[in-house]
Amino acid sequence: MLDFLGEGSTNKKFLLPKFFYTIDCIKEKFCIRGESMWLITTLIAALCMTLVWYIAPRIYKLDLLSLMLWGASLMILVDHILGYEGGSFFEMETEGFINNSILLGIVMIIPVFIIWILVLIIKKPKKNLEWR
Amino acid sequence: MACFIAPMATGIITTLFRNKVPASLKISWLNIMLWGGVAMLAIEHIAHGEVVLYPPFLTAMQNPAEIPVMLQEMATVGGTMTIAIVLIWVVLVAITSRMPHLSKQVE
Fold this sequence. Notes:
The complex is a heterodimer of chains A (about 130) and B (about 110). Chain A has about 130 residues and is mainly α.
């Protein structure tokens, strides 16, 4: 399906930018594969959004986005720990429509961002700024 | 299989009864964490073909032999996820209620 970025692609050297080779190298070096990657992408997103929340004005409701990402990180972590069946914690393959776990991690973040944007549209932060 | 159903059920209950909970308990934090996790895990399950967009919605429901396994996973993994989120919420509320300056910053 969406295997154009996945490990199943045989000629991906001709398809992918250098960024993805670098990620592949990191994954091989630290034995990070499959399911672990969307836990890591969610954790990175949660950390980044918490940092931005600390700096940015409160009207952007980044606390909502951060909390959603932290909640998701915790749930995915629990899922990983309980689904762990021995061996290396990070050596699990992913299956399904999206074979590349980094891409899946990014796709998983999309609905959370959509919710946040919808809340922002409803609350109209620009209008609030003008009032101030 | 469908571990996110347990936190989703909890999220529905806490969202429906949010007005009956005192504001000092900050039930919105719990709701936000629960719904964020549910949204992301739902996408993960769709990508893995465990959830479909047509009835019976859960692929495990198509095979009667998989139903008890699914229910067990819902109870164990889903239950633990829910407990973990609730514990984090309790800790957050406890910390912010004891530190008013921190509570103001979060607000």
